[in-house]
Amino acid sequence: MTTTISRRDFLKGSVAGAAAIALTGVTGGVFGLKADASESNGKILFLANTSSGPIYDFNIAYMDAWMSELGYTWEMVYGDSSNDPAGNLSAVKNAMTSDVVGIILCQDGGVANIMEEYPDLYVVGAATDMASVYDEDGASAACVDNDHFLGTYASGYASGVDTGKMYAEEIIEKGYKKVAICMFPSFAYPQYAIADETLRSEIASYNETVSEEEQIEITEETTVLMFTNLDDNFFNEPENQDLDAIIGLCGGQAFLYAPMLTAIANGTANPNMKLLTSGFENDADMMADVCSEDGIVQGLYVPNFECLFSSIVMLDNALQGTPFADYEQSEVLDGTLIKITDREIMENIINESPIASADITKLALSVEDGKQYFVRYNEDATYSALKELMASDTFTEKGYN
Description:
The protein has about 400 residues and is α/β, with parallel strands linked by helices. It is about 30% helix and about 20% strand. Helix 7 (about 255-265) links the parallel strand 11 and strand 12. Helix 5 packs across helix 6 (about 190-205).
């Protein structure tokens, strides 16, 4: 069996989303899975929000491993670059075949449309807060009560309040006195706007408790990155030439790292300027920079790719007709963050985790150990135990020691 999989020009969350790419000639089923459909429990569609990079490579390897174990085939499809509901529905329609039994969605645009079109399919989110579902006035809010919608986990904290507080604490701890904030647009990441507001509020409260010399300045305007690198003209503005740090509310340090490096080299920025941001790039130079003595990136907060496990568990339980006895209604869970705050942690993540390499022999939770959370393998498995796993240290940086 030969499967042709198209990669669309995809910007959201993708550093290299600049051109359409074609991947052809993948044999042995979708991404190397079982070729004999008669042996399959059906096909899972994975609606991705990236088309390259470490998380993309990991998702392929991880889905290959778990779908093979559970007896499903699967296919990666690519959502709309602007998270447009019609575009996401179209992507699903184009990939739909009679053997599809469930969908994993990494984007929230059009969830209700997809479920209306395919009411018998089970749907679960992954690495998205599903704002269209869980916001009170969200376009897909009705899906909250749909028993075929199985919830989601966020890409990091579900609430922007928690994200904002985390960055405020880091700014204070590291002693930065002047910072700027850059973020992806709020229409795609509404929680980033909340994080921006919270961060500013937390710093304002801190400033009330310290002397004038100890106060922290945040530049007035937040710079919105439309899924592209920070414009070089940013550092032509006098107020941005003496920054101690930039806070990047965006997915992937490459959006900020290269422009900062150039500005420092050109003498238009503080040579000691630092970056706190999220995401992970496996470019050798960027990995070498993170938390090094003279590195630009001094804090990297990585939503652990392994959190995809929870979505797979929820979907398989539903498809096997064995939901958790203590599961009542869908919800959005916090995703687990790997907090890289020193070089030792970074080296450990590079060498002992699958984050940089997609090497699933380095999983914090192996396939074998993960079976205990599935009802098909363990009739005593519970939803509360799965939630405890997600809130534990297993998927943090401590899980790879």
